[in-house]
TrEMBL record, chains A, B:
This is sphingomyelin phosphodiesterase. It comes from Edolisoma coerulescens. GO terms for cellular component: membrane. GO terms for molecular function: metal ion binding; sphingomyelin phosphodiesterase activity. Belongs to the neutral sphingomyelinase family.
């Protein structure tokens, strides 16, 4: 932005739901997304869940003309499928994987295998930091076992943004945060980083009511999940802030509303979010009034820390019970070894154990021992990370109270 | 540093080798370290391998008077044991865990369980970024299977420093890098971040010859490992750089040389490194001449990328063979299931399988299936991370060649 005092930046964000073997009509939809992106000519495109590298390569070939710069972030087993397409050069990239991301044994909730992360790309016409990301999904709002993990992710994301954005002029974040606008994680992320919500700030809005991005009208969404929310929910966001002597305003925000132009299917089970930001070089960035903002922030961090504490205690209980299970399995194995040795030494020959049951029991004990040890190690790491986050939040609270 | 144009910063760095049940005379040594730190009154203390939180708490209590600010970084199963003690306030902390860190099944090399990471603390008398860290150990220099992992760690560390240090005045890094000074990983880290080696820059030096920190004279070191290096090796470093309008000079560098003052034991199996940095506010930071530095950097990044590529191909082979093993185990299980169904249906009753061997075989197949699947998933993640790093290095090379 050297020389030119203003810039209009058009951003496209979409959770593409392009998981091989799992997502319906994947190839057709990826083709459709590619065609639309080529036709519309955005400046910056942030995509999630493009889990097949082939799909990314196809998009890259198709979009080479209008988005000459792109990057694909690899992580996890399945991959988080984060990618960025840009009309302006991407100078550098960085991937940050959250330290907690669900449980590997919850196979039905594949989050752990995705290796959820945030991809950051620096560049685009001046120090502009753009982030594409996805946080852990919420599977049951009433009894949300993953809330502590999602809060750790929101906290790590906020810390990551604070530490990496200091030399940027403008930060733009687009992604599927898997949280409702009033949830503690969103308030934590926004409060701790100063990011502004494009939906709340937009001068013009067009799209699904309340900016919802998971709506019952979409033919791919799970209708039963959305029963308590007849209008849908808003979990995909474009957030932004100006760091140095720039101001950013959101002129327009749009969401898609079901089937794409000229077809019968939507892009994905999520609606796309499109923002037009107006970036201008001038005085100080427009900030919130800090006195009250800090007080509210103390409340949010305290609330988040309480939830992380709840998760910590649950993880400690799981660590304890898996450890106990491992010890019991080990004792059973030792007992069996003693019995086998006894039989070999000629004791109890009048009443020998049935060999088959004996072996079955030994294998069962061995299996339980391996599984319980694995679980114990996993929950030990979970406890450490939750404890570490609790500590960091406490330090943040102290800093907020001492240097408001 | 507002107002005061110069600052003399005394830094202490040590790999404490304080792993519960494994390290010899641990408590005695931790006490000794604490006593010395209290007596000497450094400004900044960066410790590694303080794996027991109890040891950290004891140190914290002992050092509360002269180092009122401290932080302990939690990670992994055993923990990387990173901690920082500081005479000046620590405003913020951040933990970055490397995406690759050895293999969980290499139990004898416990690196995976440590969750190796870099702990960053911001604060200390003005934007000073201090990092405490440890990279994956080298177990066999001739056939170093972990070199690609260590290079990924060095690259991630360098990227992390580049992205987080932009608003800092001075960056200080202290840690056990597990690399010799001329190794490609060190050259990559130094070249890509511009960090300067305190040993090479120091005006005065006092300590083990060549600045070695793992020496045969230390009673805790493994003498056989050091046979090819009669003087020892230098793998612990203090690196630094000035970012904004500051200059940093290393006035003095010292290492310990065996037993601590008034005792018969050294602090650890590593020698401590102590630097006195002279920080001054003035003109531009003294940088290397950029033309030749960039050319050398291209060579280093190319060399590192080649090594990462070698690791990538090894990981792909391991992924393939573990996948094949899982498929074979699955086929065996299916065959057994078919045989069992056949027996149930009354076929082959004249020659029934011996039940015991049948069950043993089934459990064996099940065990192999579980293990091979786990390995396959692990190596899939490894492939993704190595591939991602290779990509990032390629992008860096392109940027270096296009905008030197």
């Amino acid at each position: 932005m050297e020389g030119d005092p203003t810039l209009r930046l058009r951003i496209f964000d979409l959770n593409c739901w392009a998981i091989r073997y799992l997502s319906k009509r994947r190839q057709e939809r990826v083709r459709l997304i590619g065609d639309t992106l080529r036709r519309e000519g955005f400046d910056l495109v942030l995509l999630q869940e493009v889990c097949s590298e082939q799909d990314y390569s196809d998009l890259k070939v198709k979009l080479a003309g209008c988005y000459p710069f792109s990057h694909y972030f690899r992580s996890g087993v399945i991959g988080s499928g984060l990618c960025v397409f840009s009309r302006f050069p991407i100078l550098d990239t960085l991937l940050y994987q959250y330290s907690l991301n669900g449980y590997p044994y919850m196979l039905q909730h594949g989050d752990w295998f995705c290796g959820k992360s945030v991809g950051i790309s620096v560049g685009v016409t001046a120090p502009l930091l753009s982030l594409s990301l996805q946080l852990h999904a919420e599977y049951c709002r009433e009894k949300d076992a993953y809330l502590p993990h999602r809060l750790v992710q929101a906290w790590e994301l906020a810390q990551f943004i604070r530490h990496t954005s200091k030399a940027a002029d403008v930060v733009v974040l687009g992604g599927d945060l898997n949280m409702h606008p009033e949830d503690v994680g969103i308030r934590l992320l926004r409060g701790w980083t100063g990011l502004r919500d494009a939906f709340a700030e937009a001068t013009r809005f067009e799209g699904c009511k309340n900016g919802c991005t998971l709506v019952p009208d979409n033919c791919f969404t799970d209708k039963s999940e959305l029963l308590p929310f007849p209008l849908g929910i808003r979990i995909d966001y474009i957030l932004y802030k100006a760091i140095s002597s720039f101001t950013v305003k959101c002129e327009e925000l749009k969401t898609t509303t079901g089937p794409a132009l000229g077809t019968d299917i939507p892009f994905s089970d999520h609606e796309a979010v499109m923002a037009t930001l107006h970036i201008q070089r001038q005085g100080q960035p427009v900030g919130a009034t800090h006195g009250t903002a800090d007080l509210a922030l103390v409340d949010v961090v305290t609330e988040a820390r309480t939830e992380v504490g709840v998760g910590l205690r649950a993880a400690q209980r799981q660590r304890y019970s898996s450890g106990r299970m491992a010890v019991l399995a080990l004792l059973l194995l030792l007992l069996q070894a003693a019995a086998a040795l006894g039989t070999l030494a000629g004791l109890g020959t009048e009443q020998p154990f049935p060999k088959l049951s004996f072996c079955l029991l030994a294998f069962l004990a061995l299996g339980v021992l391996a599984l319980a040890t694995g679980l114990h190690l996993f929950h030990t790491m979970e406890v450490k990370m939750l404890h570490g986050t609790e500590d960091q939040m406490w330090m943040a609270l102290r800093a907020l109270q001492e240097h408001p």
